[in-house]
Every structure is written in structure tokens, then in C-alpha cells.
Amino acid sequence: MTAEAPGTPVRVVVVDDSALVRRLLTAILDGDPRTTVVATASDPIQARAAIKETDPDVVTLDIEMPHMDGLSFLEKIMTLRPTPVVMISSLTQEGADTTLQALEMGAVDFVAKPTADLRNALGELGREIVDKVVAAAGAKRRLAARRIGGPCAAAPAVHHSALALLGVAGHTGSVVAMGASTGGVEALREVIATLPANAPGTLVTVHMPSAYTGRFAQRLDALSAMSVKEAEHGDRVLPGHVYIAPGGRHLELVRDGGAYRCRLHEGEKVQGHRPSVDVLFQSVAAAAGRRGIGVILTGMGRDGADGLKRMRDEGARTIGQDERSCVVYGMPRIAKELGGVEREVPLSRVAETVMGLLPQPVP
Predict the structure, then answer these.
(1) Confidence of residue 152 (pLDDT cuts 50, 70, 90)
(2) Which of 31, 70, 75, 301 is most buried, judged by most C-beta within 10 A?
(3) CA 246, CA 213: separation in Å to the nearest integer?
(4) C-beta of residue 115 within 8 angstroms of C-beta of residue 85
(5) Angle, helix 210-223 to helix 184-194, in steps of 10 degrees
(6) CA dihedral 85, 89, 93, 99 (to 10 degrees)
(7) Residue 144 belongs to what H/E stretch?
(8) Topology of 10-145 in CATH?
(9) Which residues have a catalytic role annotated?
(10) Other residues' Cβ atoms within 10 Å of the Cβ of residue 356
(11) How many CA atoms lie within 13 A of 101 on its CB side?
């Protein structure tokens, strides 16, 4: 039987050099009926044997291990035995860089491992860990076809239809809002790196901790024709610029006279998240109305679905990533069911579709 069969728990191999972490993760995963640990390993050598013997649905993988670092081992998994991987990473600047590389290389998701009071901290993350493992097992994977990207991967080529609009994109008064969760690092990387240099000002919310969003913005900036930064309170939203919501703070679009600006605040979590895609989309619906373009990408849960529906109700154009190209077809699916998605397209056509929906300027 497979992990997709009703009532069959997801089979997990836990790889971590810490005996304490292995015990804690095993207790968390075995304590939920949706998951079961079939093997543990302290290093890649043991892990390789365990994966070969048990053929798991998901692997949880520590980034820092003896004998071979987690990224090198991840590359071997993606190349030789494609299996959904959830990375276990540290909440540090170095950990953020490595985690982002892992997500670009094909890892489905990550759990940020606190550096202090590990026993209690991991216990509090128990539901998140199980949810991410279950989502990874059910992901619509194209593992064999995925790029082993890493930090040096080339940016996607800009579509010809997008290039044709370069001359008008910066003069429409439009603003784009994008939201993503599981699988969002690779998805946003492809979309933003494909947009032309004077595409409309773009606000992005992705579910990431604060230690990660700044580095994510820097990595996107290096790959993109647009200028990408972590959003700051009061930033004026300009064509050719992308503003990434900082982890732990909601990002909203507000009007300031004839301009748009970024507003950041530490409100309550919405749909379990801060930053929340719903908060961003609701603000764009209110501030931009029919000048808005909403894009909902791969992700677990329903964050963004209600906000995208409101954007469409206010006259905005809306796009959802299609099921086949999603890592997890959760957020786009619910948005579509609610009537919030005007057009559903593959990831490779999202940037092209955004540009094609821009209003043509009056001569």
C-alpha cells in the first residue's frame, strides 16, 4: 500500500546526527496517526542504507552532518533515488543560506530548528513538523525532472510575450501581489526571475521565519531583472521593484496620495501565519482595486484564498498556479473553489500571464 491510501501512515526516515533530535522527531512522528518512522540514521552512510532498505515516503534531513553535508546528500537523493525531503535547519544566517539552497535543489519544505531548549521547542513545533511531512508525501512531485539548481543555477529565460510589453509595463499604475508557501522558494524564483525589469511593483508574502526572508530577497535580486528587497515600513512601491514580506510581520499595500506604500505590522496570525497571504491580498483589494493583479502559488493550507476572492470581487485580475506544476496544490485549489482564480496556468506561464493581463496604456 502507498502513503496515499486512506488510513495508511506516511513512512519516514529521520536523518540527524543528534541522538536527542532523532528521539524527539521519532516521538513526534510516531505520536501522530498520520506518520510513522521506519528508520533513523545519524549520518549519510547510514541514511543511504536505510532509504534503500525501507523505501520511505519522506526523508527528514539535517543540514549539518558528519561525513557528508546535507546539501551533498540531498543532491544524491534527488539524482539517484528521488524522494520528498523535509530539511531540518537551524535558525541562523548560515542555516538560512543553506536551507534556501536545499529548497532550490528540490527539498519540499523545511523546519527551522531552534538553537536553545531543543526538547521543548521541537515539542511545540510538533504539529508543524507532521503537517509538513504529510504534505511532502502527498506533493505532486516531478522529482526526476527538477533541476539540481543550487545557488549558481541560471535564471529562466524571459518569455517573448513578456518582452513585448517591456515598453508599457512601467506606465500602467498596476500593482502585483503574490503569495506562496510549500514549494514557494522555487516557484517565486522562477516567476520573479522571468519578469522584465519594469514590470509593475510587486509585493510578495511567503511563509518564512525572519532569519530567512532577507537572504531570500538577496538571492532573488541576484537572479532577477527587477530589484528585489525585503520590504521596509513606508517603502514606496515602484515599477521594477519587488518587496518581500519580512518573516514575523504582515505586509500590506496602502495608498499615500497618488502613490502606493508598504505597511508592516505585527498583528495576530491569520490562517496560522504571520506574514499572511490573506492580509496582503485583502490590502491590495482595498488599496488598488481593479489595478491589482493577484497571484497564488503552490502551498499547503488555505492562506490567501479568501483574499484572492476579494481581489477578484473588487475587479482585480487573478491567477492561480495549476495542480500539475504545484508542489502542493492546496492554496491555489481552495482559491479556485471559492471563485477567486480567474486564470489557472502552469508555473512556467505565470510571469507571461501577469504581463498579458496589464491594461494597455492609452496613446
Answers:
(1) very low
(2) 70
(3) 6
(4) no
(5) 30
(6) 0
(7) none
(8) Rossmann fold (3.40.50)
(9) 181, 207, 303
(10) 15
(11) 18
pLDDT attached to residue 98: 87
Burial of 278 (0-12, 13-18, 19+ CB in 10 A): buried
Q: 86-115: per-residue pLDDT in tens?
A: 998 876 666 788 889 999 888 999 988 776
Those residues whose C-beta lies under 8 Å from the C-beta of residue 135, and which sit 6 or more positions away, are 108, 109, 182, 300, 328, 330
Q: Residue 52's pLDDT is what?
A: 93
Q: Output the pLDDT for position 162.
A: 43
Edge-to-edge strand list for the sheet holding 58-62: 35-41, 10-15, 58-62, 85-90, 109-113
What's the rounded Cα separation, in Å, for the pair 134 and 129? 9
Query: What is the band of 149 on the pLDDT scale with cuts at 50, 70, 90?
Result: very low
CA quadruple 236, 237, 241, 245: dihedral sign: positive
pLDDT value at residue 322: 96
Over residues 255-278, mean pLDDT: 95
Q: For cell 498520520, what's the residue?
A: 34
Which residues in the chain are classed under CATH 3.40.50.2300?
Answer: 10-145
Query: Which residues make up the CATH 3.40.50.180 domain(s) of the chain?
Result: 160-356
Q: What is the pLDDT of residues 323-340, one digit of tens each?
A: 999 999 999 999 999 999
From the candidate CATH numbers 3.40.50.180, 3.30.160.60, 3.30.70.2740, 1.10.1040.10, the one assigned to the domain spanning 160-356:
3.40.50.180
For the segment 51-86, what is each residue's pLDDT rounded down to a tens digit?
A: 999 999 999 998 877 777 888 899 988 888 889 999
Tell me the three state secondary structure of residue 194. Answer: helix
pLDDT given for residue 19 in this prediction: 92
Going from the C-alpha of 122 to that of each of 13, 84, 99, 117, the distances in angstroms are: 17, 21, 18, 9
Q: Which of 207, 253, 199, 251 is nearest to 224 (CA)?
A: 199
Residue 58: CA atoms inside 13 Å, Cβ hemisphere, count? 31
